[in-house]
Each structure stands twice: as C-alpha cells, then as structure tokens.
Amino acid sequence: MGVAGRWLFWGPSNFLKYKRLRKRIKGLKAERRHDRETDSQAVEEFEQELDREIEKIVLFFLGRQGALADQLSVLNEGRATVFKDLPSTSYRTKVQKLLQEYREVGHGLVALLGFLEINTDGIRRILRKLEVKSWGSDFIVRRLRSDDDQLSQLASHEGIQSLAVAIRRGLGELHDLVQTHSSIRGLLSEDELRIFTSEPILDEIFQARKKASRASEFLDRSSALVGIFEVEDETILEHERRLQAYDPVSVMLNTLSTFLYIVSYYVVAPTGGVYAVYLGLPESYNGILIGAAPIAGLFSAVLYSWWANRSFKRPLIFCSICCLVGSFLYAMAFSFRSFSMIMVGRLLTGLGGARAVNRRYIADNVPLRDRTRVSSEFVTASAVGMAAGPGLSSLLSLIPNWSVGAVNFNHMTSPGWLSFFLWALYLIILVIHFKEPPRVKDDHPEPLKHSQGDEESQPLLSGTLKTSIWRELVGRRGVLHLLWVYFIIKYACEIFVASASVVSYYYFQWSNDSVGIYLAFSGLLMLPANFLLSSISQRFDER
After folding, report:
1. Cα–Cα distance between 233 and 241 in angstroms, integer?
2. Are strands 407-409 and 402-404 parallel, antiparallel or unpaired?
3. Burial group, residue 123, by CB count within 10 angstroms (0-12, 13-18, 19+)
4. DSSP string of 20-37?
5. Taking a C-beta distance cutoff of 8 angstroms, is the pair 216, 160 a contact?
6. DSSP 384-402
7. What is the gyration radius of the CA atoms in the chain, in angstroms?
8. Which own/partner contact pairs does 122-127 have at CB distance under 8 Å and 24+ positions apart?
9. What kind and span of H or E run contains 8?
10. Contact status, residue 49 vs residue 24, Cβ threshold 8 Å
11. pLDDT digits over 161-194, tens only?
12. Which pTM does this prediction carry?
C-alpha cells in the first residue's frame, strides 16, 4: 500500500483540520480590526482548539510508531529463527517473505513521516497566518515552556530514528545472510540476486526523514530561543510583562549608536593614508590609524560588560563622549601636525564602541516577539555603517577647503568633523530621550550558607571547574571552528579596508573619493550576501 493509500486508510479525521482553522483565523482578524480589547476570549478558544488538534496528531503519531515497533519486534523474532532451517525452497521463501515484510514496515514508516511532515507544515502555516509579530510566536513559546507541552513531540524524532535503525539492521542482516551462504545464492535467480544488492526503501526513509525535519525547523528554532532566553519559572510572567514595556525610541537610539560607531570607524579609511603623509609618516600608517580603534575595544568590552549590569544609559553616554572627543582630536591633529593627537583620537573612538552594551540591551530589554527583528536591524545598521563611512568620506572630498582660526576643514579633517557633529547631535538626543529600563531586583535574596573551614577565602569558581569549562569549550570543535572562521574573515576585511587606499593608488592611481566609493559599494555587498547565505542555510546543512 502506497503513502496515499495508507493516508486514505487512516482517514481524514486524524489529520489537521487546516481549512477550519484558517477560517477561524480570518474571523479572529476581523474581530481584532473592530475591537482589539474584547477578543481575548475568542483567541483563547482558538488556542484551545489548536491545542486539541495538535494533541490528536501527536497521539495518532505515537500510536502508529508503537504499531510499527510491534511489527518490527515480530519480524526480528522471525529473523532470529531463520538460521534454524536448512537451505531449501522453503528457506528461500521465508527469507523473501521477511524481506518483503521489512519493506512493508519501511513503507509504513515513510507514510508516517509524510503524515508528520504535512501536519507540521500545516501547523506552521496556521501560526504564520496569525500576527506572527506578536501572537503566533508567543503561542509556540508558551507551549514549549509549559509542562503540558505536546508541540515539541512533533520535533522529536527519537522514535522514528529507532525504527529506521531497526529496519536497516534487519534488511542488512538478511542481505549478509544471502551474500555469505553460497547454498542460499544457488536457490535465487539473477533477478532476485540484483534485488538483494540494494534496498530503495532505505533511501526513501532517509528522504522522508529529511523532509519531516525541515518541516519542523520552526519548532527547533523556537526551542533554542526558549533555552537561550529562559528565566526562572516563577518569574516568567513578571519578566515578560517588564519586557512588554520597552521603549521603541530607546531601542532606536541603541541601534543608532552602533551605526554611528561603524561610520566613525570606517570614515577615515579613504583619507587616512594621505593624512599620515601630511604628518610626515608613510602612507601605510593608515593601517595603524584604523587598527587603533579595535585595540582600545579589547579593553572597553570588559568594562562595558560589567557596567551594563548596572546601567545602560550611562555607558552609552560615556561611549558617545569618547567618540565625540576622539573625532575632535582626529580633526584638530591637522592644525597641530601631531600624530600623537590623531592616535589618541582613534583610541578614544575605539573606546567609544558600545556594541557590547547594544547587544546586552537587546537581549535584556526587547520583548521576545520583537527580538529577532531588532537584532536584524542591529546587524543591518552595522552593514550600512560600513558602507556609509567611506561613502560619506568621498562626498566630503567634494566640499571646498576652508578654515576658521585653528579649525581646518579639508578632505583629511572632514571625516573627523563629520563624526564630531553627528556624535554631538546624537549625545543631546540620547540624554533627553533615552529611558533607562527598569531593573529586576530580587526582593528575597537567598542568604549565603557558610560551612566549616575557611571557605570564604576560596574562589567562587574552583580551578577544577574552570578546567572543565575550558575542556568543554575545546571539545566543541564546531564552536572553535566558527570562531576561527570569524577571525579570518574579520582579519581579511580589516586588511582589505586598511590597504585599499595604498594599493589602489599604487596600481590604478585612484583618488581618495574613488577609493571611498569603492569601499562603500563593497560594504553594501554585505546585505545581499547575508540574505543569500540565510536562504542557502535553509536548504543545506551548516557544514
């Protein structure tokens, strides 16, 4: 019996009532448009109906797994007794019968995986038709956090894997039996021997498992999200209510901070070499000017990680002031012909990199339903800033040179003055409009328990535990590999940016504004590249 035949035999009542649920969603959306305050009961009723549908599917799925497991148990017993018979015509018939029955169980498993795929995909489509920015994703998260969760059973394929292994082992042993006993091969025709050398059903099972896993990917991602952002069970509701009160303006200012930092970081790339020559240094010192910022960032990341535990607004203000002063020193170094001043300016710019604070703010104060969107905006702001910095530097080179006293505005100092004015404007808006998010305090801290001995002087993290954590990190080769790949990519990117002005002039006689335009377009390529990589990752394994 084929897959379609088995589905007809099982009956439509065991499948998801997709059309009915879709009709209910249209009714919910209509109610929300008319009255957003009184639709909670209708939403709750729909959730209960969807829960019943999921439970029905899960129970049928588990029941069919049990039936297939019973069939395999009987077949395994028959396989164990096949060696007791002497090679004969009846022996050959028994082997062929066992092989056929194993294949039938395999076809049943393929049909069950198809049942899982079509119903899981239907649930995904139902949730997607909801307002996925709010209610659809919350439904999954609340179910995965509940002790009465049925939804995760659709993503759990341990039973399926056991069944597939049992079928593969049973067919494999029967194949080995035929191939290793010449007396058995003599009883088979050439066509039968060709059949014994391959089992298409195993490939069908593999493909069906792959499709079912792809259909349940949205549940795997939600499970990972729950694990990453999990809080204590007794404070989940309080934690979620606090996150719901986040301020969109503050989120925008947090994202704008990383955009301005990346702009300040890369805006000096096209003209840094010329600036170094003006100060009496080789043009290759452009790499030192660009590299000074991340060197300072190595130390500031530790400071901001500690500071973010106590405040978000104060470290953002401090970072803005550092970038403001750093940009001012970079621009004024022209008047004083001081390389030390320009280096201090770049170090202060690196010290003003608040990306650790930005990420922490998103993780702690953005609701779960909006966290993916805000994180995407954060990454996009970084990519656009990488392109905007050199692009703005090229545009500034078109402005005529002028000076007022010790202030000189030209193609070398204009990147510093632009960053200075942008940071000054941002700092004013930040001080006025950024709202410090509330902190969750433990009103009933658990008292410290002291035991005998001088344990107060012992470190909180023992040397043994530190060693085990390090071994655990080293043992995860995938993590180390990705970190190494990220390091190489970042290393190559910095070399490319730092050497662009020198190499392009030496080989192509490009001007500074041409270098800036080139770097700007190169930075913009990150956006389609990330989109393409995201699309490919949905179809192929990460490897």
Report:
1. 14
2. antiparallel
3. buried
4. HHHHHHHHHHHHHHH-SS
5. no
6. HHHHHHHHHHHHHTTSPPE
7. 32
8. 122/15, 122/16, 122/18, 123/16, 123/50, 123/53, 123/54, 123/151, 123/154, 124/215, 124/218, 125/18, 126/16, 126/18, 126/21, 126/22, 126/25, 126/50, 127/218
9. helix 3-10
10. yes
11. 899 989 888 888 877 776 666 555 555 555 555 5
12. 0.56
The Cα–Cα gap between 316 and 254 comes to 8
Contact 264, 349 (CB under 8 A): yes
Query: By the 8 A CB rule, do 517 and 271 touch?
Result: no
The predicted structure's pLDDT at residue 133:
39
Residue partners of 143: CB distance under 8 A and separation at least 6 = 51, 149, 150, 151, 152
* Cα–Cα distance for residue pair 236/159, rounded to 1 Å: 32
Look at residues 217, 215, 203, 11 and name the one whose alpha carbon lies nearest to residue 114: 215
Whether the CB-CB separation of 349 and 326 falls below 8 Å is answered with yes
Query: Which residues are within 8 A (CB) of 197 and not within 5 positions of it... i.e. 6 or more apart?
Result: 175
CA angle, corner 252, sides to 251 and 254, nearest 5? Answer: 65
Nearest residue to 267 (alpha-carbon basis) of 402, 422, 426? 422
> CA-to-CA distance for 412 and 275, rounded, in angstroms?
6
**CB-CB contact of 369 with 134 (8 Å):** yes
Report which residue type is found at 178: V
Query: pLDDT band at 328, cuts 50/70/90?
Result: very high
Whole-number Å distance between alpha carbons of 390 and 412: 13
Helices marked H in 216-312:
217-228, 236-244, 248-266, 272-278, 286-307
Taking a C-beta distance cutoff of 8 angstroms, is the pair 348, 320 a contact? no
Structure tokens belonging to residue 96: 């062929």
Please give the structure tokens belonging to residue 292. Answer: 């000074």
Paired tokens of 43: 């939403």
Q: Cα(52)–Cα(44) distance, rounded to whole angstroms?
A: 12
In whole angstroms, give the CA distance from residue 310 to residue 305.
10
Dist. CA 437–CA 250, nearest whole Å:
9
Residues 6+ apart with CB under 8 A from 309: none
Report residue 454's pLDDT band, with 50, 70 and 90 as the boundaries: very low
> Residue 7: CB partners within 8 Å, gap ≥ 6?
15, 111, 114, 115
Distance CA 122, CA 433 (A): 44
**Residue the block writes with tokens 């050959």:** 92
| Amino acid in the structure at residue 208 | A
Beta-carbon contacts of residue 353 (< 8 Å; ≥ 6 apart): 261, 265, 293, 296, 297, 300, 301, 319
Structure tokens at 273: 């070499």
Token pair of 199 as six digits:
């089992």
